[in-house]
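=== Discrete structure encoding ===
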Amino acid sequence: MSIQNNLQEVKQQINNKAVLVAVSKTKPNEDVMEAYEAGQRVFGENKVQELTAKYEALPKDIEWHMIGHLQSNKVKYIAPFVNLIHGVDSEKLLKTINKEGKKNARSIACLLQVHIAEEETKFGFSEAELMSLLSRELLAELEHVEIRGVMGMATFTEDENQIRKEFRSLKQLFDRLKTSVFADEPGFQEISMGMSGDYLIAIEEGSTMVRVGSSIFGVRNYH
């Protein structure tokens, strides 16, 4: 199967119910271009160095999403161009993104990463942490950050009920935030959940954005 055929198949399954982020991490520019030529414009990378290199080399109408764990000291490299940062998991990171947004005279769109999995290996806020973090004072201070929604990763398991339960908990948290903290923010509308193994379940549970790599590009190349 070619990347183009894979992409068409994934898009048919998603059926415009969610934004497709094609996860191009570890893939060469030629693979990205093959997906680009098949009409894909939104790509996700998890390493800052690779993201900036691809941004420099590839067409400028690509929307680049930073989907991996982001360290505060690396924000400056992607701040000029990144379209969306998926994994904001600390107050320090939010403030750094705000500072770099200010330097670049732009507002940087972000998703708050929530820890929904029962595994300890995932990054993210708990609901209690989020509720105490998102004060009016902090939100007023973040003039160069646009919080667009939430992101979460389900436990890596074959148990579909468990995955469903975790995705549902993120959707419910999103709804609570939408009616309380972000009631006056029309831009707060994204729920990024679902990857190659579980994106169809995620869409059924309310995902607006899915991150799909291996189903499009084939199995990853680890160097």
